[in-house]
Amino acid sequence: MSTLKVDQLEAATASTITVPSGQTLDISSATLTPPATMPASSAANLTSIPAANITGTIAAVSGANLTNTGGLKSTQQITSTGTYTKPSGITMIRVYITGGGGGGGSSSQDDDHGGGGGAGGTAIEIIDVTSVSTVAVTIGALGAGGSAGQNSGAAGTSSSFGTYCSATAGTGGEFGNAGPVDGGGGGEGSGGNVNLKGGCGDGGSDSVSGFLTGGMGGNSYWQGNGRGPGAAAGLDAHTNSGSGGGGATTNAAGGDGGTGFCYVEEYA
Predict the structure, then answer these.
(1) What backbone phi and psi angles, to 5 degrees, belong to 32?
(2) Contact 208, 106 (CB under 8 A)
(3) What's the rounded Cα separation, in Å, for the pair 256 and 233?
(4) Is 2 a residue whose pLDDT tops 90?
(5) Which of 21, 158, 166, 236 has fewest C-beta within 10 Å?
(6) Judging by DSSP bridges, how do beta strands 92-98 and 122-128 pair with one another?
(7) Contact in structure between 188 and 167 (CB atoms under 8 Å)
(8) Which of 154, 157, 176, 179 is nearest to 166 (CA)?
């Protein structure tokens, strides 16, 4: 076997050097002259660099322009039926969806009181939206309070976030008619990681002195129920709370429930 000894290697256009069979190439003492312009290199095959081989100081890095680094990026509040549109860069969302609240019951005469409406339920769900752009959203309508006379409050309607999760509405409070009355029942969430029931409406009360109090509406996850006053119409629940309206006294109308609500937290 013979050995081909090379004293110097200069830039060449060939990409390989062919050594005849049975011979070896010795470049141990050669002077390597790289080309004036080095070809582009890739770090694709680098797997690790020992810490001992890293010297010098790494400059501080600002996170002001970093994107897709995780964490809460934005939120949306949806108060009417429509479409949720995912912002660019969002991969996960947490959805809160609440059904409409029931209306408070009216009273039929001066010495009666109506029951408060029930609150809508709430579902809370974490959803991977990597491959999702839009989602249809239904916001439940409020239940109207019973008109003055012998009228119970109306039930609200359900809310939903696509087919992912939904929440039923609260029912209306009973009208007062010379006897005990019931408040409306609360709705329930479904399909979520957490499913909550809305608060039931209060039936109201007669005091020892004969002073009447209309039933208070049930509280939703967002609170804001309607108060059941004495000697007056029931008070409405807070808008977009999904809570129940207050019951009335003294031949007055019940308060409306709150409309449904959807709140979306968006994460990268």
Answers:
(1) -95, 125
(2) no
(3) 10
(4) no
(5) 21
(6) antiparallel
(7) yes
(8) 157
Number of other CB atoms surrounding residue 265 within 10 Å: 16
233: tokens are: 């119409």
- The backbone torsions φ and ψ at residue 157, rounded to the nearest 5 degrees and listed phi first, read -125, 165
**65-73 contacts, C-beta under 8 A, 24 or more apart:** 67/268, 68/268, 69/268, 70/267, 70/268, 71/267, 71/268, 72/265, 72/266, 72/267, 73/266, 73/267, 73/268
pLDDT in tens, 143-191: 999 998 778 999 999 999 999 999 999 999 998 876 678 999 999 999 9
Structure token digits, residue 243: 């809570």
Residue-wise pLDDT for 183-242, tens only, equals 999 999 999 999 999 999 998 776 544 567 889 999 999 999 998 876 688 899 999 999
